Amino acid sequence: MLLPHWLQHYKKDQLNGDIIAGIIVAVVLVPQSMAYGMLAGLPPEVALYSSVLPLLLYAAFGSSRTLAVGPVGLMSLMTGATLIDQGITDINEMVTAAHTLALLVGAALLPMRIARLGAVINFLSHPVISGFVSGSAVVIALSQLKHIFGLDIPTGLPAYESFYLTISQIPQSNIATTGIGLGSLALLWWFKSSLAKILSRQSISEGAIQFITKSGPFAAVAISTVVVYQLGLNNQHSVSIIGDIPVGLPEILIPSVDPVLIQRLLPNALFIALIGYFESVSIAKSMASQKRQKIDSNKELIGLGTANIASAISGGFPVAGGFGRSMVNFSAGANSPLASVFTACLVALTLLFFTPLFFFLPKAALAAIIILAVLPLIDTHTLKQAWEYDRTDALSLLITFFTVLAVDVETGIIAGVVISIGLYLNRSSQPHIAIVGQIENTEHYRNVTRHEVITDDRILAIRVDENLYFANTNYLEDTIMRLVAENKAIDHVLLICSSISFIDTSALESLDNTFYHLEKADIKMHFAEIKGPVMDKLRNTAFIKKIGEENVFLSTHKAFQTLKEQQ
Amino acid sequence: MLLPHWLQHYKKDQLNGDIIAGIIVAVVLVPQSMAYGMLAGLPPEVALYSSVLPLLLYAAFGSSRTLAVGPVGLMSLMTGATLIDQGITDINEMVTAAHTLALLVGAALLPMRIARLGAVINFLSHPVISGFVSGSAVVIALSQLKHIFGLDIPTGLPAYESFYLTISQIPQSNIATTGIGLGSLALLWWFKSSLAKILSRQSISEGAIQFITKSGPFAAVAISTVVVYQLGLNNQHSVSIIGDIPVGLPEILIPSVDPVLIQRLLPNALFIALIGYFESVSIAKSMASQKRQKIDSNKELIGLGTANIASAISGGFPVAGGFGRSMVNFSAGANSPLASVFTACLVALTLLFFTPLFFFLPKAALAAIIILAVLPLIDTHTLKQAWEYDRTDALSLLITFFTVLAVDVETGIIAGVVISIGLYLNRSSQPHIAIVGQIENTEHYRNVTRHEVITDDRILAIRVDENLYFANTNYLEDTIMRLVAENKAIDHVLLICSSISFIDTSALESLDNTFYHLEKADIKMHFAEIKGPVMDKLRNTAFIKKIGEENVFLSTHKAFQTLKEQQ
């Protein structure tokens, strides 16, 4: 049998770390899964099923050693939104559609490798991603408030509307539910913020501290379940509980491939696939770089693709690599994907024996788990950095963030991409154009406004700090003609091309035009420092023949020396 | 009274040229107007009304001396398409909507000046424009075939469908109409191609030749009208004729400002305004540059805006500067907008006295006039040039062209813009990265694959020929890490930034990441030739403090000298 690379070279001393990490991740994953299932509006078992087979497939085919695959907040949110968008509200239909969606996501990821579609993510700037992730985290957190307060808010509304409705109905909260919800939030917060400090003062091993502090969700589940059961809160105070979860492993079944359903789900499936791929690769890269390992984007597409197909055929919904759990896995010392195999086994054991224990688990506790899981994704650091470094980047971040909140995640990311491309084009459409002169006794030529340089009245030497293409070619033409008009002494225009990596057809026409006008005004046009690849393309054009090869200089210095001698 | 600039400085010797040009343009304009009215599906008088007041207003406010404003093919096509799109088919409603459309086009042009929206046209590359103009010309020409053959083809179909229908129905052509249509085409072609040569052999003055060769449309109108009248072709052979055109000048009336109608027409009005502005400015610029005059884009917006509003209130439809007639005006010796004033007066005289003469004018002759007017717009030169110089530009030209034919002009231009921006981003997402070395005994550093240079195994000096921004930052990071992994001797990575005009937030993060990885591998990172504006922004970042100002060199040469001394 062909074993994965990491397994062929497995070393004994890696086992300890993998076992511990596998257990800790499982302790986080079981409650988180059920919570993300709830976020998608699906029964908890769908999410638990997504936490077994997909993990094994990713371990076999993925390239990251420590990525923790399974249900994640963003994918769950988008899955739920897709079902609502398509008007699928019957619970059985929702479950079927969720399987089909996972199948489509998996099926979309596999051919992306061939079409190199993964490159699309290059068009997402970091600020747009930051705005998108923060916005999604806020949307997810806000969507859980209704569970914390036990309110009945319709789904499918934009985040701000749903938030407004929730706030306005807080007076009608269910007191018992609110108690459990806020109590769970407090407990989880305490695990996260204070417990590690308390434990580190005791003489407890580092590993045990890791284990205890990460089991906050588990503790919230356990305590809230016991409280509801003991006090009978589900009956007497109508606290919403999880209820029955079927015992046993998922059956392997080919999901519905109803063509009508596929057609309805496909556009969103492509989007979910791209986002899931992007999220997973980002996390995997960030962990791999810390250990100087490499992520292979193509293997990632296969790993995630097969994981989603595995989810589809084992009763699950779309999965991806999750930020929080991957960090837990990584910091708990996982050395290889074997850790995920242990995690999957533990989830399987839970499905086989322990699901009846979750009957009285209140939804408010799960909501608290979701909120605490997504809060760290809200990233103000990038906003601050972008604001200080480049306001236009900060602007695209904010537009993405607020569009996610005001409309939805898809529109948010599309708005972000459009705005960042637009701003980039706008920036490059008015390139920096420097008039340069010689630094005394050197062969260097620099901007006249920034350096003390020697110039010659008869020579206008300008350096364009941008590729010449359709969006900026008018600007260049206008600038040259304006400079020439302002200074009647000019006999030579020297265009220094050290920053120009390509000249498109529009720009070539525009240069031709400029040449024509300058010629009419008895001004000669010259070029210096044209780069090799640019010159290769220019060499065969009528334009360069018009200019004359003798007017194309290798260096600015040579051009200046030659032109100074000319009368 | 505040006279326009050109009138304040009017010289007597300009008058002759203006009168002759004014007359010749009028001779072309009257038949062309009626033809373009037919193209838009509107009565001929609407187009004639568009040829009086708008010309006077443009003369008063525009900046081009020779631009011939009035009905043009593209605007008429788009006006007709807009009315069909909106389901406006009743002739009275169509006329009202055409006035409103002109009002909206004018109203849209005026504030564009403030919003600097004219800059949007910078995002149209020359190849996209060429594909768009050629495609529109073909669409217009094809749309007239039905009139040539006297067929009844429904409007509002994509060009290829309408063409297919026409061809398949040619056996059912109206013989008399076909005779007139083909005869007119032949006559016009003869005027265009052979007449000038014949006349130049006679001893006729240049001016008279100009006048005679340009009166082809007038001759086609006169001859075909006489033929139809004499042979009674309209009754006996059901040849379609123009019919009644009301006698007299247009009334000045504020057009309907029905809010519902405005809402329906507004999106297309904005589009027509942009295209009209673009077409006019392109023509005006090309003529002005030949006479070393200047076009003021802002004045153009006002000139065209008021011309369209004038058209709206005097019973016309959207107008712009036309390519063909402007060329006629220019080459007939027009010196100032006074030529257009004469033209307007002659059209007014026609409206006052001569419209009954057009009663028997066959539509087939007008169709022939349209076809001959738009054929010169089909531009294969740019395609050929782009194909040789840059295939991606040729691709965007062809996509635009075929989308115009297969869908419509709006979709065509949108497709062209999207594809050219996409290709540009794709190109800049994989920038040219050169490894450089020293040219012996100089301070110059060049690509190792193109020049004989001296390198140092311990120093990897790379020059990135592109701005660093979100779309290419992953590529750079991957390339550096690959180069470092391939050559274990490297101790220093020197990034030469001579081609980098800005570094966005994403790229800054990516550089930070690269620095982190290199540091872990005991490799130092240095920079050279960072441009002034880029350094200004970097100076305050945490990144440059990490790098250390001592590792940022003014020149590549200094960097090499310093690094060679280091162990």
Features:
homodimer, about 575 residues, mainly alpha, six-stranded mixed sheet, two-stranded antiparallel sheet, 8 strands
DSSP strand tally of chain A: 8
Strand content of chain A: 5-15%
Radius of gyration of chain A: 31 Å
Q: Helix count of chain A, per DSSP?
A: 27
Strands of the largest sheet of chain A, in order across it? Answer: 4-3-5-6-7-8
Q: What structural category characterises the helix and strand content of chain A?
A: mainly alpha
- Oligomeric state, counting identical vs distinct chains: homodimer
Rounded mean pLDDT of chain A is: 88
Residues in helices of chain A, as a percent range: 55-70%
- Tertiary shape of chain A: elongated
Short description:
Chain A is about 65% helix and about 5% strand. Chain A contains 27 helices and eight strands. A six-stranded mixed β-sheet of chain A has the order 4-3-5-6-7-8.
What does the model show?
The structure is a homodimer of 567-residue chains. By secondary structure, chain A is mostly helical. Chain A has helices at 5-8, 15-39, 44-49, 53-61, 73-85, 91-115, 126-143, 145-149, 159-168, 175-193, 195-201, 206-214, 216-231, 233-236, 259-290, 297-313, 323-331, 338-354, 363-374, 381-389, 391-406, 409-428, 473-486, 505-520, 532-538, 542-547, 556-565; strands at 69-70, 320-321, 433-438, 445-447, 459-464, 492-496, 524-528, 552-553. In chain A, the strands form 2 sheets. Chain A has a 6-stranded mixed β-sheet. In chain A, strands 1-2 form a two-stranded antiparallel sheet. The longest helix of chain A is centred in the middle third of the chain and has 32 residues, at 259-290. The first copy, chain A, is elongated and about 100 Å long. The first copy, chain A, starts with a helix and ends with a helix. The interface between A and B is large, with 63 and 62 residues.
